[in-house]
């Protein structure tokens, strides 16, 4: 199966709650493409990843880049998941000990969890273990990409405008809108 090497802006925008591309989208699209390339070129992980369609691999790469975008933009989608998981289960992530976990920053366990979640969704009939030694090297490489990007990644201001409620917001009205 020959994989297309690039994710294009229209693919990236299908995950966004807005129609018009933002200046920050190009940064995160580039990051998603670098993540995809890491999966495709890693000698061990490529055998596992190649069984997914190109769109699936694009989805995984966009999901990981969006994770960083969420943290940088303070959208708090990921941080809310972490906070609620800690509240209900006493730890930031299911299945992981998270010994060196730093809230509101990128974490290797987060990336492991996202890859596990993705693989579990696409391979519903196969039990996946959370720590996969074959994928760990490529996940470490992706973590390094995110660490580099963390220092220079732009905020997506459209996210904060769309996801921020005013202090006098009628939460009942918002909850009815999502029913």
Mean pLDDT: 81
Largest sheet: none
Protein structure class: mainly alpha
Rounded to the nearest angstrom, the distance between the terminal CA atoms is 41 Å
Order of helices and strands: HHHHHHHHH
Quaternary status = single chain
The helix count comes to 9
Radius of gyration: 17 Å
Helical amount among residues, as a percent range?
Answer: 55-70%
Strand content: under 5%
Protein architecture, described:
With 179 residues, the protein is mainly α. It has one domain. The protein is 61% helix and 0% strand. It contains nine helices and no strands. Helix 4 runs antiparallel to helix 6 and helix 6 crosses helix 7. The N and C termini lie far apart (41 Å). The C terminus is likely disordered.
Provide the fold topology.
Layout: H1 9-13, H2 23-41, H3 45-49, H4 54-72, H5 77-89, H6 108-122, H7 133-152, H8 157-163, H9 171-177
List keywords for this structure.
single chain; 179 residues; mainly alpha; 61% helix; globular; disordered C terminus
């Amino acid at each position: 199966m020959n994989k297309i090497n690039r994710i294009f802006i229209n693919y990236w925008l299908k995950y966004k709650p807005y129609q018009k591309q933002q200046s920050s989208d190009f940064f995160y699209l580039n990051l998603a493409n670098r993540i995809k390339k890491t999966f495709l070129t890693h000698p061990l992980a490529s055998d596992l990843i190649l069984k997914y369609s190109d769109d699936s691999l694009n989805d995984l790469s966009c999901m990981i880049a969006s994770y960083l975008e969420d943290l940088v933009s303070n959208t708090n989608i990921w941080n809310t998941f972490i906070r609620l998981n800690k509240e209900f289960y006493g730890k930031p992530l299911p299945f992981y000990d998270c010994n060196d976990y730093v809230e509101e920053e990128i974490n290797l366990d987060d990336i492991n969890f996202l890859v596990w979640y993705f693989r579990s969704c696409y391979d519903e009939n196969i039990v996946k273990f959370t720590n996969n030694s074959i994928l760990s090297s490529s996940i470490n490489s992706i973590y390094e990409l995110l660490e580099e990007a963390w220092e220079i990644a732009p905020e997506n201001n459209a996210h904060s405008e769309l996801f921020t409620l005013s202090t006098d917001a009628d939460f009942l009205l918002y909850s009815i809108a999502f029913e």
